């Protein structure tokens, strides 16, 4: 089905992103067991949890890149409910409202940096080429890569490629940015340059949901931290509450593990 997206006006007090009752199974494996999530305008929520806890699957369900078995997601004014006969324009609008940055950068290798950033504005937003290039150059300046605009991705470091991926997501002018372990595939010395870009976005008031095990980043930037395990939210609170006085044994055990292991092994699959 096609057509104009179904728009429900967003009340002034409503969260920018809201998910209710999100469930997802792969065969007999129940990965998400009824997750509720609300993220306010300008809020930064960090999600942590062991491998297989459902963090990455939840992010993908928020954009229907992975369709939930049950539940509904609203981003801005667009709501999509699992299991219904969906208007495909609703799904596209939902994805436009939520920029996604993955563990691996997924840049087009045959396109230059600026062409990668311009792709969405040209093909999805229908911008004129000159306007898309101007926007792309502005965003590359924001991530510190304007002087690399005509490079191909193969000439960039992993950290630079991830910064291009952030600029590409921002080019859609999303209302929410979703980050799925954006530094887990990077060499340790490149992690800081990506986190600094994310810090700047947070300071500018971007609404963000970040799956990461970077505790220092969470302490510095997050408004709330959520610990997921076994497909449920075990505990949530401010960074101070979570990192100094967590209530749940599972939370304390997990934080103890990542404090002893500064960085996850690159490339490890995470559900």
Quick recap:
Helix content is 36%, strand content 23%. By secondary structure, the chain is of the alpha/beta class.
Question: What's the layout of helices and strands?
Answer:
Elements: E1 17-26, E2 29-39, E3 44-48, H1 55-62, E4 70-75, E5 78-81, H2 88-97, E6 98-101, H3 113-123, H4 129-142, H5 158-170, E7 176-180, H6 188-203, E8 207-211, H7 215-221, E9 224-229, E10 232-237, H8 239-244, H9 249-260
Helix pairs in contact: 3-4, 3-5, 4-5, 5-6
What does the model show?
The chain is α/β, with parallel strands linked by helices and 271 residues long. Helices cover 36% and strands 23% of the residues. It has 9 helices and 10 strands. A 6-stranded mixed β-sheet has the order 6-7-8-3-9-10, sandwiched between helices. The protein has a 4-stranded antiparallel β-sheet with strand order 2-1-4-5, covered by helices on one side. Strand 1 and strand 2 form a beta hairpin. Helix 4 crosses helix 5 and helix 5 packs parallel to helix 6. The longest helix has 16 residues. The protein is globular and about 55 Å long. The two termini are 30 Å apart. The C terminus is likely disordered.
Low-confidence stretches: 262-271
Tell me, rounded to a whole number, the average pLDDT. 90
Strand order of the largest sheet: 6-7-8-3-9-10
Reported for the largest beta sheet, the result is: 6 strands, mixed
**N- to C-terminal separation?**
30 Å
Number of helices: 9
Give the class from helix and strand content and strand pairing. Answer: alpha/beta
Beta-strand content: 15-25%
**Residues in helix, %:** 25-40%
Please state the CA-atom Rg, rounded to the nearest Å.
18 Å
Order of helices and strands: EEEHEEHEHHHEHEHEEHH
Beta strands, count? 10
Large-scale geometry: globular
């Amino acid at each position: 089905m096609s057509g104009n997206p179904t728009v429900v006006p967003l009340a002034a007090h409503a969260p920018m992103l809201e998910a209710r009752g999100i469930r997802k199974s792969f065969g007999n494996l129940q990965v998400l067991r009824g997750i509720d999530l609300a993220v306010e305008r300008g809020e930064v929520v960090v999600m942590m949890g062991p491998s297989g806890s459902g963090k990455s699957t939840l992010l993908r369900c928020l954009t229907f890149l992975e369709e939930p078995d049950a539940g509904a997601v609203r981003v801005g004014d667009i709501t999509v409910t699992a299991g219904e006969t969906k208007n495909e324009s609703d799904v596209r609008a939902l994805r436009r409202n939520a920029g996604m940055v993955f563990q691996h950068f997924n840049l087009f290798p045959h396109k230059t940096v600026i062409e990668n950033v311009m792709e969405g504005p040209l093909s999805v937003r229908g911008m004129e080429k000159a306007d898309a290039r101007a926007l792309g150059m502005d965003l590359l300046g924001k991530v510190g890569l304007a002087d690399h605009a005509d490079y191909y991705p193969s000439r960039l470091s992993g950290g630079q490629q991830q910064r291009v991926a952030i600029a590409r997501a921002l080019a859609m002018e999303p209302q929410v940015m979703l980050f799925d372990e954006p530094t887990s595939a990077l060499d340790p010395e490149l992690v800081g340059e990506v986190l600094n870009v994310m810090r700047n976005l947070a300071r500018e008031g971007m609404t963000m949901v970040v799956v990461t095990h970077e505790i220092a980043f969470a302490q510095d930037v997050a408004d709330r931290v959520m610990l997921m395990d076994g497909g449920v939210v075990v505990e949530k609170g401010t960074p101070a509450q979570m990192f100094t006085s967590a209530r749940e044994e599972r939370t304390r055990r997990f934080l103890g593990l990542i404090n002893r292991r500064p960085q996850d092994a690159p490339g490890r699959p995470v559900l």
